[in-house]
């Protein structure tokens, strides 16, 4: 599926990228799961090398190995070995004194489960090096409640550090019309309504229908409700991810 819309967001991100050539930038991007944050970020930056770190649920040492490999490939710098992300982040910030590059840390909120001390360590490193740095740092997350806590709670270490905030929203109706027209020019009002109601403008859900060539109301419903459908468990998965260990309480309320 081709890349749609996001012109305003790309414009903002490229303006930030331009600023980072002189002043360190820290951008927080938040948006619900499957909205297209990662795809947007990978398409937005054109003037700087882009490092992409994904914070998976694995051992911190293994994550550091992956991140070091990314730095060595993209920046052609030999870094060595690290046992903590904080150590690695300090070295990356030191590198940014002489190199202008973009660092995307995806699912940033996962550090809260992996090693919560990362936030205070990053604050100290950022505060001590940012004046000499030329880094374009983008911290991206899909769990809105956790990202809001990390960056907007006055008691948290990273409060007040971000220079820009982007809340990525679903595609609007004009974009949905464009997508449906590209794949099914003779769509009906019912087709468009079903397309909107099923996807809500969420990029991943749209992609699922496009891949299965489900462009009419009947085909969309068949795709969504068929055995093994991607959509059948998605609501549950979103609630579990958003509410963590408390999700059972919310499931009980919904059941009642």
Topology readout:
Blueprint: H1 7-19, E1 25-30, H2 37-44, E2 50-54, H3 60-75, H4 85-95, E3 101-106, H5 111-114, H6 117-129, E4 135-141, H7 144-152, E5 164-167, H8 173-183, H9 189-199, H10 203-211, H11 217-225, H12 234-243, H13 247-255
Parallel strand pairs: 1-4, 1-5, 2-3, 3-4
Describe the structure.
This protein has 256 residues and is of the alpha/beta class. The protein folds into two domains: 7-167, Rossmann fold (3-Layer(aba) Sandwich); 173-225, no CATH class. 52% of the residues lie in helices and 11% in strands. The chain has 13 helices and five strands. The protein has helices spanning 7-19, 37-44, 60-75, 85-95, 111-114, 117-129, 144-152, 173-183, 189-199, 203-211, 217-225, 234-243, 247-255, and strands at residues 25-30, 50-54, 101-106, 135-141, 164-167. A five-stranded parallel sheet has the order 2-3-4-1-5. The longest helix is centred in the N-terminal third of the chain and has 16 residues, at 60-75.
End-to-end separation:
40 Å
Would you identify the CATH H-level superfamily of the largest domain?
A: P-loop containing nucleotide triphosphate hydrolases
User: How many beta strands in the DSSP annotation?
Assistant: 5
Q: What would CATH call the architecture of the largest domain?
A: 3-Layer(aba) Sandwich
What form results from the Cα inertia axes? globular
> What kind of sheet is the major sheet?
5 strands, parallel
Question: How many DSSP H or I helices?
Answer: 13
**Average of pLDDT:** 93
How many domains? The number is: 2
CATH topology of the largest domain: Rossmann fold
Low-confidence stretches: none
| Fraction in helix | 40-55%
What would you call the structural class? alpha/beta
What integer value in Å does the Rg equal? Answer: 20 Å
